[in-house]
Amino acid sequence: MTEHSAGWDLSADLQEPEILEPGDRAAIPTGIAVEIPPCWEGQIRPRSGLALHSGLGILNSPGTIDADYRGEIKVILFNASAEAVTIQPSMRIAQLVVCPVAEVTFEESAALEDSNRSTGGFGHTGV
Questions:
Q1: DSSP assignment, residue 88?
Q2: pTM for this one?
Q3: Which residues have a Cβ under 8 Å from the Cβ of 60 and sit 6 or more positions away?
């Protein structure tokens, strides 16, 4: 795991290359586990260069690592390109960013306060 100002690079912990055919997805192991403090989460984010040049993305982006998870981090890579992509051992495949999570309490209500947007979704915030 390599540290950068925005987070840490995660690398593929593979013994041999793994090929992702177009439309394929795979949980790629990283060989690491982390202990995230309560009220924080890990976010697994795609690498922009892999997305642009190879068509590789993270299927559930951003992936969430809960604070109580202690298992190995695996990255669900998806090949959105028209060609096979080879994941090499030690290849940087994703980024890990650790962020605070706000604790909130929801209350049931018969009505919600009005807003400018109201119930408009999917394109109602402008271009």
A1: P
A2: 0.81
A3: 76
Domain boundaries of the chain, sorted by first residue: 2-100
Report d(CA 62, CA 73) in Å as an integer.
13
Distance CA 50, CA 29 (A): 17
Choices 2.60.40.10, 2.70.40.10, 2.30.29.30, 3.40.50.2300: CATH for 2-100: 2.70.40.10
How many beta carbons lie within 10 A of that of residue 93, not counting itself?
A: 23
Distance CA 73, CA 34 (A): 8
| pLDDT tens, position by position, 13-56 | 999 999 999 999 999 999 999 999 999 999 999 999 999 999 99
H or E segment at 7? strand 7-11
